[in-house]
Amino acid sequence: MNTPLLETAALDVAIGGHTVCRSLDWRVMPGESWAILGRNGAGKSTLLSTVAGLREAAGGTASIAGMLVAATPPRELARVRGYLPQRSHDPFASTVLETVLVGRHPHLGRWDWESRADRRIAEQALAEVGLAGFEERDVQTLSGGERQRLGFALLLAQAPRLFLLDEPLAHLDLNHQVGQMELLAKRAAAGAAIVAVLHEPGFAARYCRHALLLFGDGSWLAGATADIVTAENLTRLYGHPMRLLTGAPHPVFIPE
């Protein structure tokens, strides 16, 4: 049987006195795509950073590829899981290519330099996100959408088996939103696991076969998207009546 790429057992996550989730039992298998949905402030980003190993859980455990997150060195985790934060900060000048090559560092020895093969991987990642020819651009000259795609290219160069993505569609126009989700679908088809915080239920229903709903009071619901991403559950989730449009080729939800 395949080992889950992400597994939590009785996981409690809290921040600032707010309970994000309580007793979360969750398994993400190779090849699966998961959407995390919830209203602003529900704790989606907090949960994602916790299972990534970037903050401590309030209780329970999280494991990545069988490794207990709390007991595994960050470098070792980074060889398996990639994490895209909601915001990227570039306090120092660097080129686009130098930034993407950071994704190769978990695979290098402590004193190794990037090889020609690493450079080819980075250049291919830039091409996949539509940034071919940007290699020598200063990252501080990029638009918000270009910087978001650069962050995704870094993850592609890192080549993780588990992608943890916090609002990967932020700052992107529609064609790049679709392109980003298509790239993630290809990675899932090749055996990677995808976990993405999304704001649009229609994208979740179209591209993710599983979903985790965070209701903001510690309660949660996880399962097949077709079963749990419904107008009834979304109405509870967002605190506003939602309706499923009929006749569309993919599920589309709109507020009433």
**CATH architect. name of the largest domain:** 3-Layer(aba) Sandwich
Q: What is the overall shape?
A: globular
CATH class annotation of the largest domain: Alpha Beta
> Roughly how much helix do the residues carry, as a percent range?
25-40%
Spans where pLDDT lies below 50 across 5 or more residues: none
Largest sheet: 6 strands, mixed
Provide the number of structural domains: 2
- What's the CATH topology label of the largest domain? Rossmann fold
CATH superfamily of the largest domain: P-loop containing nucleotide triphosphate hydrolases
What is the string of SSEs from the N terminus onward?
A: EEEHEEHEHHHEHEHEEHHEE
Task: Report the mean per-residue pLDDT as an integer.
Answer: 94
Rg result: 18 Å
Instruction: Tell how many strands the DSSP assignment holds.
Output: 12
Taking strands numbered 1, 2, ... along the chain, how are they ordered across the largest sheet? 6-7-8-3-9-10
Helix-and-strand structural type: alpha/beta
Strand content: 25-35%
The N- and C-terminal alpha carbons lie at a distance of 44 Å
Structural account:
This protein is an alpha/beta fold. The chain has two domains: 1-80 and 161-256, P-loop containing nucleotide triphosphate hydrolases (Rossmann fold); 90-159, no CATH class. Helices cover 32% and strands 25% of the residues. The protein has nine helices and twelve strands. It has helices at 44-51, 74-78, 96-101, 116-128, 144-158, 174-189, 201-207, 225-228, 231-238; strands spanning 6-15, 18-28, 33-37, 59-64, 67-68, 81-84, 162-166, 193-197, 210-214, 220-224, 242-244, 253-255. The strands form three sheets. It has a six-stranded mixed sheet with strand order 6-7-8-3-9-10, with helices on both faces. A hairpin with a 2-residue loop joins strand 1 (6-15) and strand 2. Helix 4 packs across helix 5. The longest helix has 16 residues, at 174-189. The chain is globular, with a radius of gyration of 18 Å. The relative contact order is 0.17. The model has no long low-confidence stretch (mean pLDDT 94).
